[in-house]
Design a protein that fits this description.
The longest helix is centred in the middle third of the chain and has 13 residues, at 72-84. This protein has a single domain (13-138), classed as Rossmann fold (3-Layer(aba) Sandwich). The chain contains 5 helices and 5 strands; from the N terminus they run ααβαβαββαβ. The chain is globular, with a radius of gyration of 15 Å. By secondary structure, it is α/β, with parallel strands linked by helices.
């Protein structure tokens, strides 16, 4: 294969990545698993949810989940996985960088942001979590 036909991971769209099976793990993040053991189910928001692994885990634990991602392919995979488990999750395709989804103030008991860094979202997440609620966020370094 010559260099013109190679597609680097960085040049692939998220739709292409999810369609090819990349980043399509079904296992929730281990930090989320540990955290949820001690939480009473409530209203959760999963930002940049991808193929839905964390949103599905939260719904299985009794949370009312809204899950956002800008990849229609990722959201479709997540919807299919949730349907197979008879789970109801509010999946939405929205570009967070373009403010296509507004985090409602004092609305969530738990806000998740795994491996997605958009610095201006931290203030919005802080406003969106209810008093006593939790924000859980991890990023790649």
């Amino acid at each position: 294969m010559d260099d013109d036909n190679k597609i680097s991971k960085s040049s692939k769209s998220w739709d292409e990545r999810y369609a090819s099976g990349e980043f399509s793990s079904v296992e929730p993040h281990k930090l989320l698993i540990a955290l949820v053991e001690n939480l009473k189910p409530g209203k959760a928001l999963d930002l940049a949810c991808g193929a839905g692994r964390n949103a599905i885990f939260l719904a299985e634990k009794g949370f009312q989940v809204t899950a956002i991602d800008n990849s229609a392919v990722g959201i479709e995979i997540a919807k299919q996985r949730a349907k197979q488990k008879n789970l109801t999750i509010d999946f939405r395709v929205a570009d967070l960088e373009k403010s296509e989804f507004a985090i409602e103030e004092n609305s969530y008991d738990l806000i998740c942001d795994f491996y997605y860094l958009q610095r201006d979202l931290f203030a919005e997440m802080k406003k969106g979590v209810k008093p006593g609620g939790i924000i859980i966020s991890t990023i790649h370094i």
